[in-house]
Amino acid sequence: MNWSDRLRHGVADNTDPLMERASAPTRTARWFAKVMDYPLAAILALLVITAIAIGGYVYPEWPEDLWRRIGAGTESDSSEQQEVKRDPPINRRSARFQAASRDSIGRSHAVVIVQTPDLFTVDGAAAYRNVVKKLNELDVVQFARSLDEAPPLNIFGLNEPILPAGHATPQRFAVAKEKALSHPFVVGMMLSSDANTVLIDVYYDFIFVQDSTDLTSKLLDAARSAAAEFPSVKMDFQVTGSVPFFQLLRETNRSNELKYQLIGYGMILLMAIILFRGLAVVAVVSAAPILGVIWTLGFIRYFGYEDNPFSFVILPVLLSLVGFTDGVHMMVHIRELIQQGMSPFQACKRALELVGMACFLTSLTTAIGMGSLVFAHHEIVREFGWSCVIGVVCTWISVMLVIPLACRTHIGNRLARTANKDVLDRLLSRIGPIVGWSVHRCRAVSLVSIATLIALSGVALTLKPDDQKSSALPRGNPIQKSLDYLDRTMGGLDVCSVAVQWSEKANLSEESLIEALQKIDSFLRSEPLIGHPLSLPRLLDALPGEGSAVEKASMIELLPPPLKLALYDPDRRVANVTFRCKDLGSAAYADTYQRIQTFLDSMDLPNTVLKLEGDPIRRWRDLYRIVTDLVMSLGSASVVIFIVLGLAYRSWRVGLISIVPNLLPLVASASWLVLTDQPLEIVSVCCFTICLGIAVDDTIHFLSRYQEEMRHTQERSLAIERSFQGVGTGMVMTTLVLVAGFSSVLFSETKDHRVFGSLGIITLATALLCDLFLLPAMLMYFDRDASQTEEMR
């Protein structure tokens, strides 16, 4: 009875023949086992790496300071270095917010949103002015721009506040409201079109920022306290803007850091208890990946990656699972060898000979898959890629040191207790006949697998990319609610512009420039997703007097200098038309921006450059790079991984065979995104690339065992049978752990994390099915010479 028949009848042998055969290990296998012979060196390595990692938690700048002291060589330089203080709590990246200008339009550090129907009343105006006053008195606020600071639009340049002063009559406030809603700079930029929402632009003085509450809570407390002095006025406040947005991401990462580390560690412990049911083995298998995660989170602080939105939520769970899978494969072999009569020392050494190379290859391919992210265009993706590479190296070293050291102690004598695998044995006995069926029909299974890969690839290519800023925010948070509110009332928070730049050769008169700006302004107003365009012609139209903006060109010099320079700077030969954009995602704006760009390209202005600028525009232009990053990351990682497999197994045929069972899970997950009408986002690129590196791990363990079995028998079906018996348990175990670990991320408040978790579950579960049912069939059909293939037909 061949293996296919035995499996179909459920009588497959449960022993592991390779464990019992005392064949001489290869040179590479002996090299991995040498860690058992040098325990003091292993302990020293553990202590040194741990000490360096702790340094990252305590004071990550110490290598830079040490290097400066070594390079300084003088006491004066040394004393200067001691005066250097660490960055304020908002961290060194906050330097990008320091350059904001008081005269910039819509680009302040933060925005205080004031919701009130009483603004144009005596008490409402007084309450509003009191709020602005209290905000300006805060030490963390460099200045807060009031509605009254809007530049006046009169030919005399007289200061004319938007809100009437003192106890003006209701009629006077009604006139002021009408004038405010006709002021092109006020409406849409500082005041909503219904006059029920007014924005206060806030610029921080970061020297006085001590903690995160200074950026939002302090502003809200001051505003509410000021408004409380006018109980008859109804005022509600919200805070949003670039700095609060960034700080919220940072706080979310910090709050989730311990939470998701505990989830990852708890998942490891729970799965270890369920799968191994022994306190000693649970402690050993769990300690290795936990230590690897602790090392990683210390090391990435040296590189400033601590604020990456993925590093402290997804990374701990991910690395815990990656390290745990290697530990599971190793521990399964150790326990079985101990049960066969070996001492813990001998069992661990033999297990390292059997799976040491496989564990190294899985870590290498995982690092390659994750490392391909460092070539992405997005900074967040690149940083996450480097963090993953650092983490994979740390967890592999931890597993290769902790488990062998534990086996040298009295703990090793307890590793074989409760080693029965009744649950998994029953599971494998049930799926065994299905595996045998696929091997028996290897030709049909192989061809159907290839056809399915091609078909799903076609579906996956229809994925549409998107990039929405608020996807990184926790759902239901105040910043997110503020963004949604501004989308409804002000046309969005983000301010973009059309920049018109001309050279000296352009010979562009002010009248011609105004005509061009009018066309741009008019086209922008025709787009439904574009909010409140503001341009030089619109300011001229608002000036008193008859005539069009072109006819008022001579009045440009009468405009308030700050406002004029924000939109028109003749010395720099640049003019801007600004507008607001909602946070709907780049995909929603793609057609709009493309129409605008096409219109700008069609304008006939010699020696003049017209271009779209702004953060949403940058994200739109980078949108295609999401697809490019995915293709390049997956493509480069796939090629390198399969080259590594071909070299490691000294068989290009084996490397090519592994392509289908490893790419099929990825295109299946991409097809699921298409079917559920979800876009391709940055987090999807990260997940696909990372899952490729993880999914190939089971393939490597199966192929490593298959290659080893082929050294002892030329009967391919027998080698596949023994490979299934030897590593099937570990493959099922590790996939269960990975799926459970990724499931924990589904409970995150952030959309990006939930997408990552769902894609990971689908990809890894599909990868296990491919490795169990497709890989054996493809090995049976393709890993043979031409004559054998012909016989199979």
Q: How would you briefly describe this protein structure?
A:
The chain is an alpha+beta fold and 793 residues long. The chain has helices at residues 3-8, 17-20, 27-33, 39-58, 62-72, 75-83, 122-137, 170-182, 217-228, 242-276, 279-299, 314-339, 344-371, 379-407, 422-440, 442-460, 478-489, 510-525, 536-542, 561-567, 586-602, 615-621, 623-648, 652-657, 659-675, 682-710, 716-745, 751-782, 786-792; strands at 110-115, 141-145, 197-204, 236-240, 494-502, 530-534, 568-569, 574-581, 608-613.
SSE layout and pairing:
Layout: H1 3-8, H2 17-20, H3 27-33, H4 39-58, H5 62-72, H6 75-83, E1 110-115, H7 122-137, E2 141-145, H8 170-182, E3 197-204, H9 217-228, E4 236-240, H10 242-276, H11 279-299, H12 314-339, H13 344-371, H14 379-407, H15 422-440, H16 442-460, H17 478-489, E5 494-502, H18 510-525, E6 530-534, H19 536-542, H20 561-567, E7 568-569, E8 574-581, H21 586-602, E9 608-613, H22 615-621, H23 623-648, H24 652-657, H25 659-675, H26 682-710, H27 716-745, H28 751-782, H29 786-792
Antiparallel strand pairs: 1-3, 1-4, 2-3, 5-8, 5-9, 6-8, 7-8
Helix pairs in contact: 3-13, 4-11, 4-14, 5-6, 7-9, 10-11, 10-12, 10-27, 11-12, 11-14, 12-13, 12-14, 12-27, 13-14, 13-23, 13-26, 15-16, 15-27, 15-28, 16-25, 16-28, 21-22, 23-26, 25-26, 25-28, 26-27, 26-28, 27-28
